[in-house]
Design a protein that fits this description.
Layout (H helix, E strand, L loop, with lengths): L1 H25 L4 H12 L6 H23 L8 H17 L4 H13 L3 H29 L1 H14 L9 H25 L4 H18 L7 H22 L11 H17 L6 H11 L5 H33 L5
Length: 333
């Protein structure tokens, strides 16, 4: 009963936050701007979305193959189809209930492949650890590929509070950002040591320990080169799906790889904040594109476009997998 209430509360909070963010993103739009938003979505080149959808599907299939590699040291060899269907069901259930996807992903595969759920959940720790590291690398690449832009933004914000030099370069300001980041990391490290007895800090330390254990478990994988290939392929497809998505809307069709990295970074973080990223994803994309002189309405429209085709893909393919999984495993059952 307590667990059910907790799940229901999470659902309400995450979905409620998403709905609030949608309202917050459009609350100040004039009637003319609302018309522009609708017009941008209506005039989008939806055929150009299809290659991006295909790239995401390939990334999900690659994720299934990578997951199989994590199972091999445990003695499990599920079929590629069942592994892919389970991955898509994980995304599908994450849209319905926060954080349920990983559990359902393992449960559904265990049901048809006769594997222990607890051991499959252990592979999730390793997979999530790798994704955390990849996201940190993407954040780092995003910053270093656009150090001048980051420095300019940093200098602009600094000048608003009466600090910073008018003549300092974006690169110099970028170095200031690096110094600030290093100082922040050192400060957080000191806080974690100083208050290590507090429950919240203990949970953070346990989470970090779990990530480390997940990363070290990768040494048992037989095909390490294949695992690395799939990891790079997954994140490359994420990146290229955004890059290809730019061609679907005239307002952003001129943008290149650097903005793609930025949207991949902020979009990945936004997906964590609300139910399926609703609200948070659109605002994150809009604010990111404003750095590249994209008008607010155009940026918001593109955020909705990206979010919509990702979400529809998960809903359609996930529901199909839910219906087909017992059918293709009928003989096995």
């Amino acid at each position: 009963m307590k667990k059910t209430f907790s799940l229901a509360l999470q659902y309400v909070v995450f979905l409620g936050l998403g709905i609030f963010l949608i309202w917050w993103s459009v609350r100040n739009l004039t009637a003319d701007e609302v018309g522009q938003l609708k017009g941008s979505l209506h005039d989008a080149h939806y055929l150009m979305v299809m290659p991006a959808v295909l790239m995401l599907l390939l990334s999900h299939y690659s994720r299934a193959l990578r997951w199989k590699m994590l199972m091999e040291p445990l003695g499990f060899q599920p079929s590629n189809t069942n592994a892919f269907f389970a991955v898509m069901l994980g995304y599908f259930f994450n849209l319905l209930v926060p954080r349920m996807g990983e559990v359902m992903k393992c449960t559904m595969l265990a049901r048809y492949e006769k594997t222990p759920v607890d051991k499959l959940i252990g592979t999730m720790v390793a997979e999530r650890a790798v994704d955390v590291v990849c996201l940190l690398l993407v954040i780092g690449l995003t910053f270093f590929l656009q150090m001048d832009l980051a420095g300019t933004v940093f200098r602009s914000e600094f000048q608003k509070i009466g600090a910073g030099s008018e003549g300092s370069s974006g690169f110099a300001s970028g170095l200031m950002v690096l110094a600030a980041m290093a100082g922040f990391i050192l400060f957080i490290t000191w806080l974690l040591r100083r208050f290590r007895h507090i429950t919240f800090v203990i949970r953070l330390r346990n989470m970090a320990r779990g990530v480390w254990q997940g990363l070290t478990s990768i040494r048992h994988i037989r095909n390490k080169a294949g695992f690395l290939f799939h990891t790079l392929f997954i994140w490359t497809m994420y990146l290229m799906s955004i890059r290809m998505g730019f061609y679907a809307m005239d307002a952003v069709s001129h943008l290149g790889m650097a903005p793609s990295f930025t949207i991949l970074t902020v979009g990945s973080l936004a997906m964590i904040l609300t139910q399926g990223g609703i609200g948070a994803y659109q605002i994150a994309v809009q604010k990111s594109l404003s750095l590249y002189a994209i008008p607010a309405v155009g940026g918001l429209a593109f955020g909705w476009l990206l979010w919509a085709f990702q979400t529809i893909l998960v809903l359609v393919v996930g529901l199909s997998c839910l219906l087909l999984l017992p059918v293709i495993n009928r003989k096995k059952s």
